[in-house]
Structure formats: C-alpha cells, structure tokens
Amino acid sequence: MKKYDVQKFELLSNEQIADGIFDMRVKNDELAPLAKCGQFAHVYVPSKTLRRPISVCDSENGVLRLVYQVKGEGTKIMSEMKKGESVDILAPLGNGFKIEKGKRYCLIGGGIGVPPMLYTAKQCENPLVITGFRNKDLIILQDDFKKAGAELVLTTDDGSAGIHGFVTDVLKEKISEVDEVCACGPTPMLKAIADVCKEAGKPCQISLEERMACGMGACLVCAVKVRKNGEEIMQHVCKNGPVFNAEEVVFNG
Ligand SMILES: Cc1cc2nc3c(=O)[nH]c(=O)nc-3n(C[C@H](O)[C@H](O)[C@H](O)COP(=O)(O)OP(=O)(O)OC[C@H]3O[C@@H](n4cnc5c(N)ncnc54)[C@H](O)[C@@H]3O)c2cc1C
Ligand code: FES
C-alpha cells in the first residue's frame, strides 16, 4: 500500500480565518485518508520551483485541511488560489506524533504551530490543549478544539485574550495532570517546553521546522543535530521528523 504520493487535490475552499491566516480544504480520496497527525503536505505553488511544507491540520472524509500564514511569495500565491482549482500536493510526508491509548496528553501549539495539534487532539482521549498566540487577532481554531472534546486553555503574550502569559506558565501548573506532552511552534517555545518536561520527568515530542526543498530526505537542506546513544548526528526534519523526542534534539544556543 502507498504511504505517500504526488497527486492533484481539488480545492474546496480557501478562507481567511484570522489576520494573515488562511484555512484551505483540498480533496483527494486516496491520499487524504493516509495522513497521520503531525505529518505534512508539500504543496506545489504555481511559478515556484520548491514546494511549501504545510502541516496536516485535519483529515476527514477525503479532505485535508491546511491552515497557513502568509509569510512570503509562496504562501501569498496560495492564499489567492480559488475554489475548483487543482492543487498539486505531495503527501503525507514525515513521521508524525506517536499517540498511545490510555495516556493523557498535553498538546501545545504556539502561533502557526497550533494547526497540527487539532488533528492530534482528535486522536487523543480527553487531551489538555494549550494554545498560545501573540495577540487576539491571531487566535485560530478554538471552536474546533472544543468540538474535538479537548480541555482548552488560551494564552496571549499581550493579555488581549485568555490568560496573559506563555504556554509554559500553564504547562508548569498542569504538567502533573498529564502523562506526555506534544508540541509545535517557535523554537524558543519548544526549548522552554522541553526544559519543563525534563524537570518534571515527562516524555515530550516536539515538531521542528526547517527550510525544506525535496521534503523526502534526498537534498540535506533540512538537517538538524540530534543526540542518539551519546553521539551527535545529523538527521532530516522532513524524513526522520518533523517530530523528534525532545530529549534528543540539540538546540542551538
Ligand atoms: C514540517 C513543516 C510544517 C509546516 N507547517 C506549517 C503550517 O501548518 N502552517 C504554516 O503557516 N506554515 C507552516 N510551515 C512553514 C511554511 O512552510 C513556510 O511559512 C512557507 O514555506 C513559507 O513560504 P513562502 O514562499 O511564503 O515564504 P518565503 O520566505 O518566500 O519562502 C522561500 C523558501 O523558503 C522556504 N521556507 C520559508 N520559511 C520556511 C519555514 N518556516 N519552514 C520551511 N520552509 C520555509 C519556503 O518553502 C521556500 O522554499 C511549516 C514548515 C515545516 C517545515
Ligand atoms: S528537504 Fe530535502 S532532505 Fe529534507
């Protein structure tokens, strides 16, 4: 059975859901159902040579949901794609989060790292989800997490909505209520989460982001340093990740 492929997806909708953030739904009955939580889709953008990696936010009934922020030219072009267009996507790629039955998970998303935690929440029983944003204009997916049955906590850096503070402030208070932590977001946030988990003796999986080209382990663009059996080695975020055991990641600085 195929694990991934490159195929055309039909664009069903592509709507703005927050300041500079879009929610794209694309249909392909063969590839969408293969997606696991934490994996990503490599999206071809017309006129650009390299595909753009976007996490699987959800997969249901043959429809992949991709929630993305307009950063540069590629994502700007994506935001202008219209219903009915055909989108060329290589998917699903990467390893994804490992979710075990019987464990209570704390899922943490920071900013545009929040989308992959929705599909992850749907694989968990009674997850605690902590979402953090810079301010209220960037808040996304709160109703979706509630529908997924999550205990949901919202934080903003400037206090314009939810708890005024960082996701790690909430994690420190609630870490005793969970067995394991999964997180996606900016690197300083991931490092802070990894430190809290280490101190509490809780396992932690983190989804890393690196610039990508091939997306399949062939070009070495996305290399990161990890420590395995006491030895530092390079691995590919696209193929060995994007999800890594936090204890193994060698953070720069
Ligand atoms: C595994 C993974 C999952 C991701 N999931 C999401 C998501 O769900 N939602 C979302 O908004 N963004 C996500 N990103 C980041 C997203 O891929 C970049 O924001 C996007 O590629 C920027 O493209 P651009 O053309 O708009 O920007 P430009 O800066 O013009 O891009 C130039 C080149 O750099 C690459 N690039 C730029 N920034 C990044 C980056 N942060 N990561 C990887 N490649 C980059 C682009 O793919 C392109 O090849 C993810 C990145 C990775 C690695
Ligand atoms: S993007 Fe080519 S090896 Fe990862």
Which fold name is given in CATH as the topology of the largest domain? Rossmann fold
Low-pLDDT runs: none
**Bound small molecules, which ones?**
flavin-adenine dinucleotide, FE2/S2 (inorganic) cluster
Query: What is the overall silhouette?
Result: globular
Largest sheet composition: 7 strands, antiparallel
Separation of the first and last Cα atoms: 42 Å
Q: Given the structure, what is the number of helices?
A: 5
**What is the typical, i.e. mean, pLDDT?**
97
GO biological process, one term: 'de novo' UMP biosynthetic process
Cofactor: FAD; [2Fe-2S] cluster
Family: Belongs to the PyrK family.
Function: Responsible for channeling the electrons from the oxidation of dihydroorotate from the FMN redox center in the PyrD type B subunit to the ultimate electron acceptor NAD(+).
Overview in brief:
The chain is α/β, with parallel strands linked by helices. The protein contains five helices and 16 strands.
Could you walk me through the main structural features you see in this protein, from its secondary elements to its overall organization?
Belongs to the PyrK family. [2Fe-2S] cluster binds at residues 214, 219, 222, 238. GO terms for molecular function: 2 iron, 2 sulfur cluster binding; electron transfer activity; flavin adenine dinucleotide binding; metal ion binding; oxidoreductase activity. The protein is of the alpha/beta class. The protein folds into two domains: 5-93, Translation factors (Elongation Factor Tu (Ef-tu), domain 3, Beta Barrel), CATH 2.40.30; 105-248, 3-Layer(aba) Sandwich (Rossmann fold), CATH 3.40.50. Helix content is 17%, strand content 36%. The protein is built from five helices and 16 strands. It has helices spanning 73-79, 115-121, 142-147, 167-174, 187-200, and strands at residues 5-18, 21-27, 40-43, 52-55, 58-60, 63-69, 86-93, 105-110, 128-133, 151-156, 163-164, 180-184, 204-207, 223-228, 231-236, 243-245. It has a seven-stranded antiparallel β-sheet with strand order 4-3-7-1-2-6-5. A seven-stranded mixed β-sheet has the order 11-10-9-8-12-13-16, sandwiched between helices. A two-stranded antiparallel ribbon has the order 14-15. Helix 3 links the parallel strand 9 (128-133) and strand 10 (151-156). The longest helix is centred in the last third of the chain and has 14 residues, at 187-200. The termini are far apart. The model has no long low-confidence stretch (mean pLDDT 97). The site of FE2/S2 (inorganic) cluster has 12 residues, from loops.
